[in-house]
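lol ok so funny story. i was supposed to be doing the assay writeup but got distracted and ended up predicting the structure for this chain instead. priorities right. anyway since i did it might as well share w the group, maybe its usefull for someone
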Amino acid sequence: MSITRTRRAAVGLTVLAVAAFGAVATSPEEADARPKPVDVTLLALNDFHGNLEPPSGSSGTIAGQTAGGVEYLATHLAELRAAAKKKNTITVAAGDLIGASPLLSAAFHDEPTIEALSMAGLDYASVGNHEFDEGAAELLRIQNGGCHPVDGCADGTPYRGAGFKYLSANAFKTATGKPLMAPYAIHKVQGVKVGFIGMTLEGTPQIVSQQGVAGLTFADEADTANRYARELRRKGVEAIVVLLHEGGTQAATGGINDCVGMTGPIVDIANRMDPSIDVVVSGHTHQAYNCNINDKLVTSASSFGRLVTDIDLKIDRRSGDILTASANNVVVSRDVAKDPKQTALINRYKTVLGPVAGRQVGVTNTAITRSQETLFGTSLGESPLGNLIADAQLAATDDEEGAVAAFMNPGGVRADLDAGPVTYEEAFTVQPFANNLVTLDLTGAQLYCVLEQQFVTARTLYPSATVGYVVDPNGTTGTTADPCAGTRVVRGSLTIGGTAVDTAATYRVTVNNFLAGGGDGFSALTGGTNQVTGQIDLDAFVDYLTAQSPVSAPTLDRIRTTAEVPAA
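and the output, tada:
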């Protein structure tokens, strides 16, 4: 269902002219002679994450249809442009176009994705948190071109940079206070100006490795948008669109064009935005919605190129104001012809990638999913695949560094494993970040604090099989300032290797470098000492799959509740 938002004067209604001598009605002939509004179409996407080929499993379906794949995405975009008069169409994105990508894109530092989206006609994109995965210098290379400083031009051809413009209004260079990239762009359509402000979520430093955001400061989204909206209006721009990499979630009953029980950061941000901002194209949460929040059209196109948001604007030729704005999320179905240029690009990179992707690294007895079990009414429990990865990380460091436990963050588990043979490409898709394993010393007291911090951050760390503990749903949750004050983890219940953890003793624990740096809000891990950096997490996972095949899904019995384990 399309949601319409109307601002200021309505088109086609009789206008009253106020003169010095009173109101004079404009005749129908004069009203009809007024310039017709300019029709502008925005085609929007978000959170593509390098999914050049159609995603597999549940990630490749939406609204009951198989969807996604850049060959189909490009065709749908072309058809939508043709239907909307190509010259009046602007294609935009709300971040995370790259990063956490499948091997076909990630093996070449996501250059294939940038090439593909440039060919598909993308004009402007905000910078998402994953655009910072390899740091600011790499993001600038992705925009401007040039071979990778370490790997060179991996496919043997020069990388020319993005054919679209990345915008980032609230990521500032700490040393100078200046934006890392252009904060906004002004696009003219038939004489009217449309302004696009690019925005990254303010919390990027908490979910990206510290190396990725070194030297950068991230400002409040609404405050920054309002600042640049004022600047755009001083330049005569009245039609203002924010491309924001932050979002929300609607209730499970809502469809791709609904806005049922909307929650999340986007609600507060949109409510604090200036009335001059007309449309917010959002992302980050991988959700689909079509909302009116604070008299603004707020949209999101889910993820992985499975939807395109078709946004229709009517802009007054004289004032430059947006008169009406409506949107429709369109499924990128696979019942259209593939774009031959995209097919050629995919085949070219597949040839360069060679046999590495298809190399079998293990076998699974059953499908092993990343889905989390329910823990006292919320999805904060264990995950079969998350537990398996933690086991792999412990196996990679128990002899080498004397680790006795390992923990994995849920955001680092990106896909399921199907039953049967596992290829290197499939393993890579599960763990695409190339994080290093870090083994460090934590006291028993610090371990309890780390586990309590799970309930502050609302993120569960997946534990290795050596770890067990009991959670009290009636316990108190600590605070961001003092997570250790929480009492959710029953004291005395934490065991490693079947032995109760001594709060005064020291234990060698393995996590990835993202967590070791306090990622996902686990600041308690930064207190670890005697840190030793080990192999890449993907290598540990592949080695484990090879050594342990055939692999089964681990039992979910590492975190239990007081309902399962009554107090003694």
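The two ends are 56 Å apart (CA to CA). Residues 1-26 have pLDDT under 50 and may be disordered.
back to the writeup now i swear
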